């Protein structure tokens, strides 16, 4: 397997004049971009950074962030991207945990960096922050340098991603260059990307989906069109103007895109292939996207930061809810809940925990200095994902949620996803999230938090669940109408905030309750 630096240099040789990256007025071919990347590597050398050092970045999706990512691959530096919205305390944790040698930030993250004690002890670079007490990125990239030769091999560390940390401190996920390139090649193959495709670079470069989009485009001489932060109107504008051919987004961004007034099928006509990951997609949104885009390919990609691909379904609308079968570099199983061994395989149709083979080419090898997390997740050569699901009679995997999200009500196990998919098809439901709330009699009661598209009441939604064939014990016993469903910055549903009562009831109607028999 090639290292990523050599892979990029090969792309330059293969497609020197192809458009590589677009960010507003910045438009660089592969040859031009290689020159900028080489200048940045020389600048990192002058700052004293060496192979193996960790470089923390708190940047939006801009050409400078993408350039730094490639510069680190060529220099053998481990890029460690974090959310540009991170607080000073969150930066302190990640910088300290990674033992970072340097930090790169921009205006949106400048206050957090200024308040971070750990950042103050690092070498600092700034992007577009005049007068900052840091080395300007603009200074690095402006100085000419000889074309840099790759300094790392395929076994070198490439990137360290930090998990979201919704239940505990974030965990570092270090990944080698060979695993990163294998994931990029698999992404190209499984999404049937052709030469010189163009993608919308909006999934954050601190997220596995964003990194994959960036690397995959280089493999095919494609174009990475930067969108620093998701704005539906701007996304539609870029899709049309830059002739974007494929989209790879979380369901939340698709939801916001197709419902924006600026959206029209004509504007997004260049898009022929769409894919999603990061969360389940409801049946209602699947249908809406199929009608709006009429894509040639509609891929459900199921994976994680730890192992990029678990399974792939290349025709997601044909079998709603199906995550398909194992990717080209992977094997997966469903084991019984609470299984001690990966050999405790659950019967067809029975819900259990999804596990993936650690020997796969796209796999990580363990968390950064977290033996406790390794002991929980890595067993007998398999990665225990913490996700629940089942395999149907056709051999297709269905992901039903997280082990921690399972609702046990009256002794029955209930998966929120099945209920969410059912309610999402009601025309008055814009968004829905289902959790279990404490109850003295039942232990937990199934509760649906609903953002309405149009007027509807709890009894109507309960009747809809009955008519849809949802089992009585699965039907929500309470409906709560809200103004917004809480989500993470990359669109993941934050069920724990709902359980904790951290949400805003719908202002115009308040809270409505319904009881299912």
Automatic annotation (TrEMBL):
Pfam families: AMP-binding (PF00501), AMP-binding_C (PF13193). InterPro entries: AMP-bd_C, AMP-bd_C_sf, AMP-dep_synth/lig_dom, ANL_N_sf. One of its GO terms (molecular function) is medium-chain fatty acid-CoA ligase activity. Residues 10-368 form the AMP-dependent synthetase/ligase domain. Residues 418-492 form the AMP-binding enzyme C-terminal domain. GO terms for biological process: fatty acid metabolic process. Gene3D superfamilies: 3.30.300.30, N-terminal domain of ligase-like. Keywords: Ligase. Coiled coil: none annotated. Belongs to the ATP-dependent AMP-binding enzyme family. This is 4-chlorobenzoate--CoA ligase.
């Amino acid at each position: 397997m090639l290292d990523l630096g050599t892979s990029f240099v090969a792309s330059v040789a293969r497609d020197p004049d192809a458009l590589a990256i677009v960010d507003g007025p910045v438009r660089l071919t592969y040859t031009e971009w290689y020159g900028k990347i080489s200048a940045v590597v020389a600048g990192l050398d002058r700052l004293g950074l060496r192979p193996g050092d960790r470089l923390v970045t708190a940047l939006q999706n801009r050409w400078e962030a993408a350039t730094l990512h490639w510069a680190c691959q060529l220099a053998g530096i481990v890029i460690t991207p974090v959310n540009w919205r991170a607080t000073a305390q969150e930066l302190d944790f990640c910088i300290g945990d990674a033992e970072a040698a340097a930090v790169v930030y921009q205006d949106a993250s400048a206050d957090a960096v200024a308040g971070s004690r750990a950042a103050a002890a690092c070498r600092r670079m700034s992007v577009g922050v005049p007068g900052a007490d840091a080395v300007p990125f603009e200074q690095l990239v402006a100085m000419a340098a000889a074309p840099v030769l790759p300094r790392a091999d395929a076994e070198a560390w490439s990137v360290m991603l930090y998990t979201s940390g919704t239940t505990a401190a974030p965990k570092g996920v270090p990944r080698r260059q060979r695993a990163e390139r294998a994931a990029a090649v698999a992404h190209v193959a499984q999404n049937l990307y052709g030469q010189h495709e163009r993608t919308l670079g909006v999934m954050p470069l601190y997220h596995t989906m964003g990194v994959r989009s960036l690397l995959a485009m280089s493999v095919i001489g494609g174009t990475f069109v930067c969108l620093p932060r998701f704005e539906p109107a701007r996304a539609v504008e870029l899709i049309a103007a830059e002739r974007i051919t494929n989209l790879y987004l979380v369901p939340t961004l698709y939801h916001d895109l197709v419902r924006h007034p600026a959206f029209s099928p004509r504007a997004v006509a260049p898009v022929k292939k769409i894919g999603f990951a990061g969360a389940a997609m409801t049946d209602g949104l699947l249908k809406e996207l199929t009608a709006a885009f009429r894509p040639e390919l509609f891929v459900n990609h199921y994976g994680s930061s730890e192992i990029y691909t678990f399974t792939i379904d290349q025709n997601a609308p044909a079998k709603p809810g199906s995550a398909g079968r194992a990717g080209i570099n992977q094997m997966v199983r469903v084991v019984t809940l609470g299984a001690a061994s990966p050999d405790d395989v659950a019967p067809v149709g029975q819900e259990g925990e999804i596990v993936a083979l650690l020997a796969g080419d796209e796999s990580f090898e363990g968390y950064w200095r977290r033996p406790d997390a390794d002991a929980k997740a890595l067993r007998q050569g398999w990665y225990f994902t913490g996700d629940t699901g089942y395999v149907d009679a056709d051999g297709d995997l269905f992901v039903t949620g997280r082990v921690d999200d399972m609702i046990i009500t009256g002794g029955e196990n209930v998966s929120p996803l099945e209920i969410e998919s059912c309610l999402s098809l009601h025309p008055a439901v814009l968004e829905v999230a289902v959790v279990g709330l404490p109850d003295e009699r039942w232990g937990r009661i199934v509760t649906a938090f609903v953002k309405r598209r149009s007027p509807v009441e709890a009894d109507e939604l309960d009747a809809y669940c009955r008519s849809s064939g949802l089992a009585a014990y699965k039907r929500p016993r309470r409906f709560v109408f809200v103004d917004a469903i809480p989500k993470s910055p990359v669109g993941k549903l934050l069920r724990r905030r709902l359980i904790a009562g951290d949400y805003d009831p719908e202002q115009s109607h308040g809270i409505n309750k319904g009881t299912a028999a």
